[in-house]
Amino acid sequence: MVKSFSTIRKDEISSLISSIRFTKGSPVNMTEKIFWFTNSVTCSAAFRKMFKD
C-alpha cells in the first residue's frame, strides 16, 4: 500500500523543492511548507486530487 503512494510523494517533494527554490534566498517558513506538503500528500492519496491553498 505504501509503495502505491510513492508517485504522489515524489510529485509533492518536487513541488516542495520548486517552491523553496522560487524564493531565491528569501527566508522560507518551513513549518508552513511542511504543513502544505503533508496536506497535499494526504489529500492526493485519499481523494486522488491535488490540495490547493
UniProtKB/TrEMBL annotation:
Keywords tagged on the record: Heme, Iron, Metal-binding, Monooxygenase, Oxidoreductase
MF-aspect GO terms: heme binding; iron ion binding; monooxygenase activity; oxidoreductase activity, acting on paired donors, with incorporation or reduction of molecular oxygen
Family: Belongs to the cytochrome P450 family.
Protein name stated in the entry: Uncharacterized protein
Source species of the chain: Solanum bulbocastanum (Wild potato)
